[in-house]
């Protein structure tokens, strides 16, 4: 009985828990919106920078900002 | 409680934790496969293999998570966990050291972690895998000794 519990219920519980967690935290897996400077003003882009941490966020050579006015630099982990 | 019982329970606990980790990250990736591929295409050194990795890694994670629960394949899956986590951790360290571009391609809520925390998390799970391998062997040796005595 105890052996069956370990063999069947425990892995099933682990898998269900993980799948549930994956769907529950789905939103945190999506990219964030950011803005970069272009010749014509700004462009909206998708970025992985979570706006946490101390470093500045870059997409290639372009610095990423939180606002279209390009005044609030988006942050990322150093 | 006998040593055999303790080792067995601990290896089961490690398998449980590794199953949660691998299933969680695999489902998070498969849920937004196009996004995962887009992220991989922007990662240094591996961008040309983005398509292969985007399918291969979640598939491998799910296979390992499943095999951890078959006693016959448990040690092998613990080795596979150690290798997979080790490869990813090595890659992160190399990218952090030698590359300027470090977009995150990690799964789910783990992506909120900084790189250092991410490395620490990976190392913790690598230690669990390693201990699981050692204790699986120990458990096997105890069983073999008991069978020899009987």
C-alpha termini separation of chain B:
20 Å
In percent, how much strand structure appears in the residues of chain B?
Answer: under 5%
Determine the structural class of chain A based on helices, strands and strand pairing: alpha+beta
Q: State the strand order across the main sheet of chain A.
A: 1-2
Per-chain topology:
The complex is a heterodimer of chains A (78) and B (150).
Chain A: H1 2-24, E1 32-38, E2 41-47, E3 55-56, E4 58-59, E5 62-63, E6 75-76
Chain B: H1 3-31, H2 33-41, H3 50-67, H4 74-98, H5 115-149
Key descriptive features of the protein:
heterodimer; A: 78 residues; alpha+beta; two-stranded antiparallel ribbon; B: 150 residues; mainly alpha; DUF6520 (chain A); signal (chain A)
Describe the model.
Chain A: Pfam families: DUF6520. Chain A: Keywords: Signal. Chain A: This is DUF6520 family protein. Chain A: InterPro entries: DUF6520 (IPR045391). Chain A: It comes from Flagellimonas halotolerans. The complex is a heterodimer of chains A (78) and B (150). Chain A has 2 domains: 29 residues; 48 residues, no CATH class. In chain A, 29% of the residues lie in helices and 28% in strands. The longest helix of chain A has 23 residues. Chain A is rod-shaped and about 65 Å long. The model of chain A has no long low-confidence stretch (mean pLDDT 86). With 150 residues, chain B is mainly α. Chain B has 5 helices and no strands. In chain B, helix 4 runs antiparallel to helix 5. Chain B is elongated, with a radius of gyration of 18 Å. The relative contact order of chain B is 0.16. Classes of the chains: A alpha+beta (78), B mainly alpha (150). The interface between A and B is medium-sized, with 27 and 30 residues.
């Amino acid at each position: 009985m105890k052996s069956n519990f370990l063999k069947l219920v425990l892995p099933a519980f682990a898998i269900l828990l993980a799948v549930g967690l994956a769907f529950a935290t789905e939103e945190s897996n999506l990219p964030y919106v950011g803005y970069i400077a272009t010749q014509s003003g700004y462009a909206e882009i998708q970025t992985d920078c979570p706006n946490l941490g101390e470093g500045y966020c870059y997409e290639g050579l372009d610095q990423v900002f939180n606002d279209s006015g390009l005044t609030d630099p988006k942050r990322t982990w150093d | 409680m006998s040593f055999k019982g303790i080792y067995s329970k601990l290896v089961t606990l490690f398998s449980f934790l590794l199953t949660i980790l691998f299933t969680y990250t695999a489902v998070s990736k498969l849920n937004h496969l196009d996004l995962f591929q887009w992220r991989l295409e922007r990662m240094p050194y591996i961008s040309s293999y983005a398509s292969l990795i985007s399918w291969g890694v979640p598939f491998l994670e799910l296979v390992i998570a499943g095999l951890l629960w078959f006693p016959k394949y448990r040690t092998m899956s613990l080795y596979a966990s150690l290798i997979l986590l080790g490869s990813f951790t090595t890659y992160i360290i190399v990218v952090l050291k030698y590359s300027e571009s470090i977009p995150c391609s990690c799964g789910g809520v783990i992506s909120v972690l900084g790189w250092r925390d991410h490395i620490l998390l990976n190392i913790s799970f690598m230690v669990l895998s390693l201990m699981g391998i050692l204790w699986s062997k120990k458990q096997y040796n105890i069983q073999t000794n008991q069978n020899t005595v009987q």
